[in-house]
Hints:
The structure holds 2 protein chains of 2 kinds. By secondary structure, chain A is α/β, with parallel strands linked by helices. Chain A has helices spanning about 15-40, 60-70, 85-100, 115-120, 130-135, 140-145, 180-190, 205-215, 235-250, 260-270, 280-290, 290-295, 330-340, 340-350, 365-370, 375-380, 395-405, 410-425; strands spanning about 45-50, 75-80, 105-110, 145-150, 150, 155-160, 165, 195-200, 275-280, 295-300, 315-320. In chain A, strand 1 (about 45-50), helix 2 (about 60-70) and strand 2 (about 75-80) form a beta-alpha-beta unit. Chain A is globular. The relative contact order of chain A is 0.16. Chain B is an all-alpha fold.
Amino acid sequence: MNIHHDGRPSWLRGPDFRRRAAVMSAPVLLAAALAACSSGNGSGPVTLNYWSFPDNSGAIQQAVDTCSAASGGKYTIVYNKLPTDADGQRQQLVRRLAAHDSSMDILGLDVTWEAETAQAGWILPWTGADKAAAVRDTLPTMLQTATWRGQLYAVPYNTNTQLLWYRSDLVPNPPTTWDQMINMAEQLAKEGKPHYIEIQGAQYEGATVWFNSLVSSAGGSILNATSTAPSLGPPALKALQIMSRLAHSVAADPSLSVQQEDQNRLAMEGGTAAFELNYPFVYPSMKTNNPTLFKNFKWALYPGVVPGFPSRVTIGGIDLAVSAFSTHPDLARQAILCLRDRDNQILAATKGGLPPTLMSLYSDPAFIKAYPFAADIKQALLTASVRPKTPYYQNVSIVISHAVSPAIGIDPPATLNQIKGGIENALVDKGLVP
Amino acid sequence: MTTVAPPQAPAELSRTERRRLSEATRAERRFGWLLCAPAVIVMLAVSAYPIVYAIYLSLQRYDLRFPEQTHFVGLSNYGTVLSSGTWWHAFFVTVIIMVVSVAIELALGMALALLLYYTPLWRGLVRTSILLPYGIVTVAAAYSWQFAWTPGVGYLANLLPAGSAPLTNQWQAIGIIILAEIWKTTPFMTLLLLAGLTLVPEDLLKAAKVDGASGWQRFTQIMLPLMKPAILVALLFRMLDAFRIFDNIFILTKGNNGTGSVSILGYDNLFTALNLGIGSAISVLILICVAIIAVIFILGFGTAAPGTALERR
């Protein structure tokens, strides 16, 4: 059998296979064409398939409809919902991209997937006027996540970052460092008051985010500037010491090792916690679920590690990219610029609760009304840190989350060595992913 | 072509006869193959091709994110997997889950089979209700176990001291996985054993009773030896299944905190790390392990492989 370098035997390649595939998919195409004819005019607009996280607020669907209508019959965007969990989303996208699926045009990528999709040649770079339009007024930290090897590969759609949420009835002045926060919580415990610190301690991406925020806040980074080797060092040791201190303290929620964002939210709403490190979605939720506690539910910047130095909390969000296998890349770029324009970002922020990536919005009165913490979010975003940028991000993240969770098992110097060795292996694609 | 006349006429006769016979047989055999052909082609397409392709992939350095780096590396992926502590840990966890769950299922299944066999009333209804767990989709059942053991919301977790999260503790989580497996597949074991039980002649048991054999003696001396083929088949099926355990673990712990089986490890390397070479090597190793289990049962214990029972008798 004649085998090509991409691993597919010859008969699975070339025009023959494509013809067979075309014959097999003909009924589907025919149905799609019929649907297009029945709904539109003669020639019909081009259909652009938009794949992104499932948004139940209706903001994305509304933006999709607005942009389709505004295209003047050039394109119709179809919003396809990916699975709810990030791993499931990535798997579906990657499987289709690896199979050169042309039925995807616009991809909603988590900020950690750009390096691998760009490296594999699955998404198209942005250049010229399109790039200029994409970067205008856009948060620089988010643009960093969308850049790989000096080229812009995606356009930031929304962003997200954590704030410190606390009970002002228990804590009059919010802590500015982790040590201070743990001390306060231990003091509250002595007084017999609610005192837990809510943080994502389960063995998943959230634990990696926690570690990354602490390492960056301590002045370090997980990888070196060129993403070729681990950096870590004393800042990482300090981060592990803080995680370990919390785990052994009465300040830790007993279910720290299973907690994800939503368990944190529930514990805070349940009244057992005094502090919560979480995304802004907890604010409207507290308002609805526990109006009594909501009166004392305040926010501050994420606590730092070194006194006097502000924290550098991990940035999250979605970047929109054009698939390399799209048959209408130019229209897809136009559609992306529409989907993330000012109006649609306000819509996503007010309806969907996701912080926008256009900086000017943070001083827009309409937005501040819906987002009382806009100023703090903006400050957090401007100093935010980016997770390791490498095509091996998944491997690196698994190494970290397995090492730091459960946090009670952290032995700072030994765990640091374990992370260092694991990352070194991951960066050369050596060994197995646990 | 001319043929030289053979010296012995009778021999010649028998040879043509034999040829005619064999031609008929051959035609029959050809017809048989023709009838089988569709099934054989489908089998080759859906099982042989993927297996061969997986073996081929396992000999490559092939990471989906780096298509340009793909090249033949021989057996080095197998070396990487077999020299990795992660693989042996997953292997060890898998073997523990397999041995413990199948042993308990066998004991429980036997008890339930006897109970069913001697149930005087509503036999059909009882049999159906015992089969219910087996009829529930594993993933759906696994989710309900997961909720039950989640602190704060689960009724089982609430029975434990406050603050315990059994699904994050390695051995407790493995215990829960085994429990979910047992709950789920004991009915299957029961059914296979019940079929074996019906093979034991009633007269033999009556005769033994007349001879003064106790209930336990009748069970160990008569029932068990006669049921041996059924027991071995049940054990073989369950062990092959249990070694490939995936869904329960995937839902309950995602393989976190050292609870991953070899199948979970293969999945993580294939679908999360996108490393087709290593992932395929793990898949092939799992296939080899499963084959070894089957061979031990068939050659070692003389288990009748499905379909060979008739030929042996």
